[in-house]
């Protein structure tokens, strides 16, 4: 038995942490550092780390836990009451990038910029562009003091719905990629899976509540274990019986747990497991799987085009959705920019395509470039689109202050004139008395 995997894990954890701290110093998320660690230590550069079966399986477990945690962190009530604006922004924010991304991949394949992987790979590239990760947006809006505004609330609501629509799109594409089944059969399986999820979710929720009422505050540690059992079973059933992505099952299991009274406690127990081991391995493995040996001029051009399309498609799709909801032009631009960042969601989708054999390893590098580029551009663009508003408000404030000062000067002038008139009247009265 070889113990080399221990050295691999030590290198991954140390490098992802160090580079995560470095990227955070530049006001970028630590996930960028984890990606860079995989790229630097992997075959793309130093070739210290290579893909192994152990790392692959641990990476898959990492993405399952990541989506499970995302489900637990989802606010169901916010999702229900997000309103038509959030749904329309999210819907067009999925459809437009899907079409534009698919069209770009098809045109690049026909034009010889990238190897032609077939129409399914083109659709998967479009599916990657449907993703949205608003963690960077939220931090930037907090800094600007715009998180609780109309635009901020719309972005948050649309991001919740976008996650659900993106998972449905990923499930459909993944199911089609897994075999020669018809679209109707695939859609039928998806419907059956969600019905199955509803039954299991209701039963699991009732079981958790019954146990909590029975035991009160005792033996709290068993709830995270049972929650993880539910996560793994849902992920397995989704993949094995329904042909649905395992991460979809994990996400729904997280939604079920989010409705229980101990959701915050259970979620807190998974954070150490996630950031100590599984999440760094997952993101580092994405970097390890990336190949730059075929990164010639045409592929670099495609990567640049993919980054541009990823930005424009969200601006057009989400901005149009906001416009249909009677937002102003500036607010539409702000909503669109707020939905640009793809982050870890796009990487999860891309990794899914890679594991299915739909997405080639060569395509991973343009995807990673797009994710990193979008992560860097989002806070910059947000500050620009909100700065113009800030400058306009500042100009209005200066005009109002100038107007107030002029009014004050007029009042002072009138007071001086009144005083002069009073003095003149007093002088005339004295002259008359003399």
State the CATH class: Mainly Alpha
Give, in order, the helices and strands: HHHHHHHHHHHHHHHH
Any low-confidence stretches, pLDDT <50, length ≥5? none
Q: What's the structural domain tally?
A: 1
| Count of distinct strands | 0
CATH topology: Na+/H+ antiporter like fold
Q: Characterize the biggest β-sheet.
A: none
What does this 3D model show about the protein?
The chain has 434 residues and is mainly alpha-helical. It has a single domain, classed as Na+/H+ antiporter like fold (Up-down Bundle), CATH 1.20.1530. 82% of the residues lie in helices and 0% in strands. It has 16 helices and no strands. The protein has helices spanning 4-25, 30-41, 53-72, 76-80, 83-111, 119-129, 135-144, 150-177, 183-215, 222-240, 246-258, 263-289, 297-324, 329-338, 343-356, 361-433. Helix 1 (4-25) crosses helix 12 (263-289), helix 3 (53-72) packs antiparallel against helix 12 (263-289) and helix 5 (83-111) packs across helix 8 (150-177). It is globular and about 125 Å long. The termini are far apart. The relative contact order is 0.15. The mean pLDDT is 81.
Structure characteristics:
434 residues, mainly alpha, Na+/H+ antiporter like fold, 16 helices, 82% helix, 0% strand, globular
